């Protein structure tokens, strides 16, 4: 109800006026309350609508995913895609509707409440105040005594001024009331009408959208009836086939396995066979074998890449095996290896033997008809067996890593519990683990053990070489040296987990079974390691000629006699050679060690070769240190490329970033660079060595590797986050040094790394991989440094005085 106030009545300030004012104020207060409630309800409705839209979007995404999954059924895919698009349009219409509701209801009514009702409240405050002042002036004027003329005049003047002010304010107040009463009608109706028009538009758009969709829906309705009929027919056919197959006799079903050289899929024969593994335990595993493209291959799972057993069946023969305990066994023998397999029955064995023989005969016949065609077929078949046509070495990298690592003595069983055929490894310790022990190692934290799968993870060449140079036998000789002496029982396969966990923690965390060396033993070990390069140099005749190493000396003023040093050195020589024997006896270690030593011309030991000062590898000699520590052992073992001695030093508590204050603050990682071994650097980095720690000349490992021209080490350090912008005390960065030395390989690596870093910074803080070319080139250098290091020995060492 619209309530208006008469202007003439307000000047009289009559009881009727006051009653009207009171009614208006109550009405406005109630109006404000209702409008506030309506605005809050509108906000709640909008929030609920947004939540509905969000849930609806997820539902539509689910429809799209179902359509993508049904790509083989064109009817379902196209229909679901069209429905998803239509529902997405409805979500857009809903969004527009809620936006309009926010503008029309929430925004307009909130503006009306905040602006117009606020003005009314301010006018009311002024009116109430001046009313009180007028009432006070009337009372004072009435109380003025007749005989006090000055008080009468003062009261009269105040009353006159107050009445004048009251008339002015009451007229403004009445004007504000009438304006508000007039405006409330238009504001409320305008906002609600706008909201209703938004609904009208929404339903019109939805009607038009689904009117366009209606023919498709009718068409699908007609197709659906036929689909129901077809489904019922297919169900009857399936039930008939099911009952027919159930009535068959499967006792001789293995005879159905036949050789078919003309099969459409190129698979002449396939089926399950047991295969004897080539490990020390000769375990048997069930695998899916097939004869295809003149090859015998098998798979563990269908999604796995097939493993080729025989590359060319023309070069193999097949025979029965009756001299083993298992039944139904036969063997396929090729010039390089043999594979023992077991069928489920005698008939299946005969079928497989016949299939292999037929394949051999067919291959020879095809060879006689068209040898070139067969050769091409054989070469392409290898690529077809590997996913994406990638080289077999890459596609089988998990299996290849497993075979290489398990070939090391002691690695065929878990290092901690003896479980055969381990599939996990601790890369910083260099040991193999079963799945239970690998989980316990993970719980120790990466500062104790870094666990990786031998079959599931990708193995970089330098890390694989590191695993092949250590092994369970070497590490257990260190970490279990006193186990039998202390009477500790080593866990066995099948022991409770808590017992195995307690043993592993005692072994690696508490290091309870390690034999601590005496001061004299440690001294002899360090002296022996400092002299070990002479022996290494004499056995490396295939390497480029190098300057002779400096003769080790005692620190001037030392009270140790020369005779004692000689005897100590000769005594420890055998022990040092013994530690090297652990690597020499490893089947694959000789080739790995030679490749590692040939990575770059190793610097003479115990310290680098002499170069004209101020060469980065200036001549250094061995002085008697103030004290012998595991850190010093790690320091010289890194230089001597002796991983067992390095592992022993770390087990005895050596700090991996130990600083030799007597030798320009060099670290074990810098000494590993001087030694020229990529695997030694990798071992230290896996054990948390700081790749950017500098010596007294301000040079980090990257500086030293650049100066010595060790391209493989430069590649490794850049991959591990080395700072290529660091400058030494001469303000030279690795790139400056590489440019001066004209080492194109290292310059290329450093510039590529810098460019890749700039690209990643430009792409933003969440960039991950960088440039693909950079990744490919670094991968090529990594493989070359580990597998063919002679290709990188193309440059001289850095010499600052070279013209």
Automatic annotation (TrEMBL):
Biased composition (Pro residues): 601-612
Membrane topology: Peripheral membrane protein
GO molecular function term, any single one: zinc ion binding
Domain PH: 266-361
InterPro entries membership: ACAP1/2/3-like (IPR045258), AH/BAR_dom_sf (IPR027267), Ankyrin_rpt (IPR002110), Ankyrin_rpt-contain_sf (IPR036770), ARFGAP/RecO (IPR037278), ArfGAP_dom (IPR001164), ArfGAP_dom_sf (IPR038508), BAR_dom (IPR004148)
Region annotation (Disordered) ranges: 367-396, 524-612, 783-803
Residues spanning the signal sequence: none
Main location: membrane
One Pfam family it belongs to: ArfGap
Biased composition (Low complexity): 379-388
Coiled-coil segments on the chain, per record: none
GO cellular component: endosome membrane; plasma membrane
Subcellular location: Cell membrane; Endosome membrane
Regulation: GAP activity stimulated by phosphatidylinositol 4,5-bisphosphate (PIP2) and phosphatidic acid.
Keyword Disulfide bond: no
Family matches, as CDD domains: BAR_ACAP2, PH_ACAP
Residue stretches of biased makeup (Basic and acidic residues): 367-378
Each ANK repeat, start to end: 664-696, 697-729
Highest taxon of source: Eukaryota
Keywords, alphabetical: ANK repeat, Cell membrane, Coiled coil, Endosome, GTPase activation, Membrane, Metal-binding, Repeat, Zinc, Zinc-finger
Composition skew (Polar residues), residue ranges: 559-577, 794-803
Arf-GAP domain residues: 399-521
PROSITE patterns: ANK_REP_REGION, ANK_REPEAT, ARFGAP, PH_DOMAIN
Function: GTPase-activating protein for the ADP ribosylation factor family.
Entry remark concerning the domains of this protein: PH domain binds phospholipids including phosphatidic acid, phosphatidylinositol 3-phosphate, phosphatidylinositol 3,5-bisphosphate (PIP2) and phosphatidylinositol 3,4,5-trisphosphate (PIP3). May mediate protein binding to PIP2 or PIP3 containing membranes.
Official protein name in the record: Arf-GAP with coiled-coil, ANK repeat and PH domain-containing protein
Source organism of the structure: Amphiprion ocellaris
Source lineage: Eukaryota, Metazoa, Chordata, Craniata, Vertebrata
Name of encoding gene: ACAP2
């Amino acid at each position: 109800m619209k309530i208006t106030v008469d202007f003439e009545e307000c000047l009289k300030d009559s009881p009727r006026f006051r009653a009207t004012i009171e009614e208006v104020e109550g009405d406005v207060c109630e109006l404000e309350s209702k409008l506030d409630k309506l605005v809050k309800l509108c906000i709640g409705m909008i929030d609920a609508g947004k939540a509905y839209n969000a849930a609806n979007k997820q539902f539509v995404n689910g429809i799209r995913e179902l359509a993508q999954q049904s790509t083989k059924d064109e009817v379902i895919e196209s229909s679901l895609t069209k429905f998803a698009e239509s529902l997405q349009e409805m979500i857009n219409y809903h969004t527009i509707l809620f936006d309009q509701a926010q503008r029309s209801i929430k925004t307009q009514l909130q503006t009306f409440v905040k602006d117009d009702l606020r003005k009314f409240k301010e006018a009311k405050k002024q009116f109430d105040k001046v009313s009180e002042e007028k009432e006070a002036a009337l009372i004072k004027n009435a109380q003025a005594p007749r005989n006090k003329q000055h008080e009468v005049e003062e009261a009269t003047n105040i009353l006159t001024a107050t009445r004048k002010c009251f008339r002015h304010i009451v007229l403004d107040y009445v004007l504000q009331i009438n304006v508000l009463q007039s405006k409330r009608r238009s504001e409320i109706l305008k906002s609600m009408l706008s909201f209703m028009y938004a609904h009208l538009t929404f339903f019109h758009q939805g009607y038009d959208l689904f009117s366009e969709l209606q023919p498709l829906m009718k068409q699908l309705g007609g197709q659906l009836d036929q689909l129901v009929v077809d489904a019922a027919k297919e169900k009857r056919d399936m039930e008939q086939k099911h009952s027919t197959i159930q009535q068959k006799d499967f006792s001789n079903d293995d005879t159905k396995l036949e050789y078919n050289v003309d099969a459409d899929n190129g698979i002449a024969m396939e089926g399950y066979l047991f295969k004897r593994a080539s490990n020390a335990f000769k375990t048997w595993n069930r695998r899916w074998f097939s004869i295809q493209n003149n090859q015998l291959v098998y798979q563990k799972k269908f999604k796995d890449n097939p493993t080729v057993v025989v590359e060319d069946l023309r070069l193999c023969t097949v025979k029965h095996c009756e001299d083993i305990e298992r039944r139904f066994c036969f063997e396929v023998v090729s010039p390089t290896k043999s594979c023992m397999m077991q069928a489920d029955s005698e008939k299946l064995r005969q079928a497989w033997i016949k299939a292999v023989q037929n394949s051999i005969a067919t291959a020879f016949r095809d060879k006689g008809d068209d040898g070139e065609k067969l050769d091409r077929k054989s070469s392409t078949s290898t690529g077809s067996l590997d996913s994406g046509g990638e080289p077999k070495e890459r596609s089988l990298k998990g299996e290849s890593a497993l075979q290489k690592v398990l070939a090391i003595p002691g690695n065929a069983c878990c290092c901690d519990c003896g479980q055969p055929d381990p599939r996990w490894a601790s890369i910083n310790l260099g040991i193999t683990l079963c799945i239970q022990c690998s989980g316990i190692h993970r719980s120790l934290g990466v500062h104790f053990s870094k666990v990786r799968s031998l079959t599931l993870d990708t193995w970089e060449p330098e890390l694989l070489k590191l695993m092949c140079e250590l092994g369970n036998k070497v590490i257990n000789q260190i970490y279990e040296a006193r186990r039998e002496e202390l009477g500790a029982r080593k866990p066995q396969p099948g022991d409770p987990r808590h017992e195995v966990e307690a043993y592993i923690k005692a072994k690696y965390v508490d290091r309870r079974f390690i034999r601590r060396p005496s001061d004299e033993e440690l001294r002899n070990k360090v002296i022996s390691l400092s002299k070990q390069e002479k022996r290494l140099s004499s056995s490396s005749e295939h390497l480029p000629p190098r300057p002779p190493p400096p003769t080790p000396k005692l620190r001037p003023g030392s009270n140790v006699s020369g005779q004692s040093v000689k005897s100590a050195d000769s005594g420890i020589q055998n022990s040092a050679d013994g530690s090297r024997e652990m690597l020499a006896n490893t089947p694959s270690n000789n080739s790995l060690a030679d490749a590692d030593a040939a990575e770059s011309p190793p610097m003479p030991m115990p310290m680098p070769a002499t170069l004209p000062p101020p060469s980065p590898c200036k001549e250094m000699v061995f002085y008697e240190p103030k004290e012998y520590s595991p850190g010093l052992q790690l320091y010289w073992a890194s230089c001597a490329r002796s991983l067992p001695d390095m592992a022993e030093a770390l087990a005895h508590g050596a700090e991996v970033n130990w600083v030799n204050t007597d030798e320009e603050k060099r670290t074990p990682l810098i000494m590993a660079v001087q030694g020229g071994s990529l695997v030694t650097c990798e071992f230290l980095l896996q054990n948390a060595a700081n790749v950017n720690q500098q010596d007294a000349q301000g040079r980090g490992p990257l500086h030293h590797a650049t100066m010595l021209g060790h391209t493989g080490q430069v590649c490794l350090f850049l991959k591990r986050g080395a700072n290529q912008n660091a400058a030494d005390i001469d303000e030279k960065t690795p790139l400056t040094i590489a440019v001066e030395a004209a080492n194109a390989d290292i310059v290329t690596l450093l510039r590529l790394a810098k460019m890749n870093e700039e690209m990643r910074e430009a792409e933003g803080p969440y960039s991950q991989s960088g440039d693909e070319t950079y990744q490919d080139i670094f991968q090529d250098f990594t493989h070359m440094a580990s597998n063919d290091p002679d290709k990188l020995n193309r440059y001289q060492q850095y010499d600052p005085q070279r013209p």
